[in-house]
Design brief:
Helix content of chain A: 25-40%
Radius of gyration of chain B: 21 Å
Number of domains of chain B: 2
Structural class of chain A: alpha/beta
Strand content of chain B: 15-25%
Number of strands of chain B: 12
Order of helices and strands of chain B: EEEHEEHEHHHHEHEHEEHHHEEHH
Strand content of chain A: 15-25%
Largest sheet of chain B: 8 strands, mixed
Number of helices of chain B: 13
Oligomer: heterodimer
Largest interface: A-B, 47 and 49 residues
Distance between the termini of chain A: 26 Å
Distance between the termini of chain B: 48 Å
Largest sheet of chain A: 8 strands, mixed
Strand order of the largest sheet of chain A: 6-7-8-3-9-10-12-11
Chain lengths: 341, 333
């Protein structure tokens, strides 16, 4: 494990988790008609995140992998309280951030940042790069002079390899390529020197030839500066590449979670196996095109009873329909929720 | 003689800022029943090339030269009316990108497939309906859903309907333009598998246009790599992936993490594709190329066959043939 060795050398990995999430629940209630309201019963809701627990250690990258609609983006936003979860705990550096008032939360925001998926829409087109990157500093009242501000923006730009920083500082987003914009988005997150960054599909909108640069940048920031990441993606291949651990999500639940190599090389859950077999191998000598799972993800308003995968699962038995499997540790922190794992 | 041949095809868009040289002297050939993958970044001209082949260009798109031959017959000189009747959709059809938008939301899906048949062939509506039902069945959709509207279908199913439409008139060549980019991983695998099975069963020729080299690796016999309106490397997929001879190809092949091969460093190609109004002089890749020298900046490399069918346009192909990982050196520097 070359990566683990590097961490020990710089001494940034500690056993105590930076982030601990306990039974997090986020439902989006739906509007209903008068008739169904009169009839009573529970309000229908999209159960985007439906009881997820995990930990992320300092300096680690946790990948959250799943198809669209599995709740991974909602989860990422909930981690920063950009959307208010209904239940659960998010313990960041010892504090449950869900109990904090907005005033108490503001200083913590300095430590928790997010990079969004679409670098074309996550920036104000009327602000130049300097203003975009300096905005978090201003909101947090962290700098006292213009020189200080320039200095910190310069440092953040250098960090994301936009060099020389002065050349980019006064450009506008439309003058930059997608990859450069995504670097600016990362610089905007880094300028506050956060401990933790949620990266929500940061490369899915970018051309293949420049994705590697962004991924390698995240890897470097985690290994050299000890920044902790939650990397949200639908792509197991890139997740395996940069993540220490991977959690696989299906319909609002983790179905499997564990060390990245273990999840990829010896997956335990049928859904993880299906996701893996759907990853195309860029090697014409090795044809791998197959379909293990039929159908598509059902909607999250009325998820299937018992194990949520059972209508699509090749291993399904009657018990899967009746009883929801628990996420059980199968050794070495490799957890899986399946009756037949 | 190859079944489908493109020679020095050139298509420019007229814009207020000047001509955009989207397709600039592209040549390739496809044998009957084979699949060719065309790969490149966004803006390299690959989709423009596809629309040129079907003569579906917008008003400002102008074919400046070159030839497209099908069974030896020239398609670009053909009068529009004749092309529409005999070639478009009858012999060459297309699977469009983004199934979400390719279907008409106010028409029943079955009728949209029927329409393609009725427009091109002299058959009765009953016969067309029977054929449309067969097509739905063929792409894995229950024909009972013939009278459903597109919004009642999921993304993967809509893409299957689009595939059925492309196959409606038994074409000889299907052009698939990023057929699965908007789809989820598992659904993408399902749809690609469906396309691959149908292609083999019906003996179709195919041009697969995508930025995703792993799709080409799984689906195609040959691959052409396109950069800034030109093809820079062409050959059998096995040759090109195992021994890329163009620095751009070498970067692209390594830019993709291979989940089957364990952890390795992902390479990225610094810089971005050039502006096609005023492309770089000499080799168009030189501003991003770690091997570029004075000759690359001044002189455009010729497209040359290196071995068998493997051809490349690069002055430095020998360096890559020697197996040097040029992008690794760059990363260390």
């Amino acid at each position: 494990m070359a990566t683990a060795a590097t961490c020990v050398e710089v001494g940034i990995t500690s056993s105590e988790p930076l982030l601990k999430v306990v039974e997090l629940v986020k439902h989006f209630p739906l509007r209903r008609g008068l008739l169904s309201a009169l009839r009573g019963g529970p309000q229908p809701a999209v159960r985007a995140v439906d009881g997820v627990s995990f930990e992320v250690k300092r300096g680690e990258i946790l990948g959250i992998v799943g198809e669209s609609g599995c709740g991974k983006t909602t989860m990422g936003r909930a981690l920063l309280r950009l959307t208010e979860p209904q239940k659960g705990q998010i313990i960041f550096d010892g504090t449950d951030i869900l109990r904090l008032s907005p005033q108490e939360l503001k200083p913590l925001r300095r430590k928790m940042q997010i990079v969004f998926q679409d670098p074309y829409e996550s920036m104000n087109p009327r602000l130049n790069v300097f203003r975009i990157v300096a905005e978090p500093l201003r909101l947090q009242n962290l700098t006292h002079s213009r020189d200080e501000e320039i200095e910190r923006v310069r440092r953040a730009l250098a960090e994301v390899e936009m060099t020389p920083p002065d050349e980019y500082m006064y450009r506008y987003p439309h003058e930059l390529s997608g990859g450069q914009r995504q670097r600016i988005a990362i610089a905007r997150a880094l300028v506050l020197e956060p401990d933790f960054i949620v990266a929500d599909e940061p490369v899915s909108m970018l051309d293949v030839s420049i994705r590697g640069g962004i991924l390698n940048l995240m890897l470097r920031l985690s290994k050299e500066k000890g920044v902790t990441f939650v990397y949200i993606t639908h792509d197991l291949a890139t997740a395996r590449h940069i993540c220490d651990r991977i959690g696989v999500m299906y319909l609002g639940k983790f179905v499997e979670e564990g060390p990245a190599d273990a999840v990829v090389t010896s997956p335990l859950h049928p859904y993880t196996k299906a996701l893996l077999s759907a990853v195309l191998v860029p090697d014409p000598g090795r044809k791998s095109l197959q379909t293990v799972l039929s159908g598509e993800v059902p909607n999250a308003i009325h998820p299937p009873s018992g194990c949520r995968l059972h209508p699509r699962c090749p291993l399904a038995r009657p018990i899967c329909q009746e009883q929801e499997p628990e996420l059980v540790d199968k050794g070495n922190g490799h957890r899986v929720a399946c009756h037949f794992a | 003689m190859a079944f489908f041949e493109v020679k020095e095809l050139t298509m420019y868009y007229r814009t207020l800022r000047g001509q955009v040289k989207a397709v600039d002297g592209v040549s390739f050939a496809i044998e009957k029943g084979k699949a060719l993958g065309i790969a490149g970044e966004s803006g390299c001209g690959k989709s423009s090339m596809a629309t040129t082949l079907l003569r579906l260009l917008p008003n400002n798109g102008q074919i400046m030269g070159g030839q497209v031959l099908m069974d030896g017959q020239s398609l670009l000189d053909m009068p529009e009316e004749q092309f529409r009747r005999r070639i478009r959709w009858k012999r060459i059809s297309m699977i469009f990108q983004g199934a979400m938008n390719a279907l008409n939301p106010v028409h029943r899906v079955g009728h949209q497939i029927m329409e393609a048949i009725l427009t091109h062939e002299d058959v009765s509506p009953t016969e067309a309906r029977r054929r449309a039902e067969d097509l739905l069945n063929m792409v894995g959709i229950n024909p009972k859903r013939f009278d459903d509207f597109p919004h009642e279908f999921s993304g993967g199913m809509k893409q299957r309907v689009v595939i059925a439409m492309a196959l409606a008139c038994n074409p000889d060549l299907v052009i698939a333009d990023e057929p699965t980019t908007a789809l989820d991983v598992i659904v993408q695998a399902q749809v690609l598998k469906a396309i691959d099975d149908l292609r083999q069963r019906l003996g179709l020729s195919m041009i697969m246009i995508t930025h995703d080299l792993s799709v080409i690796a799984q689906m195609c016999d040959d691959v052409a790599i396109m950069y800034a309106g030109r093809i820079v490397e062409h050959g059998s997929a096995v040759d090109v992936y195992s021994q890329p001879l163009h620095p751009y190809t070498a970067g692209l092949v390594r830019a993709f993490p291979n989940i089957a091969a364990g952890r390795s460093t992902i390479r990225s190609i610094p810089g971005s594709p050039p502006n096609l109004i005023d492309p770089p002089t000499g080799c168009r890749f030189h501003p991003r190329c770690p091997l570029a020298d004075g000759r690359c900046r001044a002189e455009e490399p010729a497209f040359q066959v290196v071995a068998g069918r493997h051809a490349v346009a690069c002055h430095k192909a020998d360096v890559l043939a020697g197996g040097v990982d040029i992008w690794q050196q760059r990363q260390l520097a």
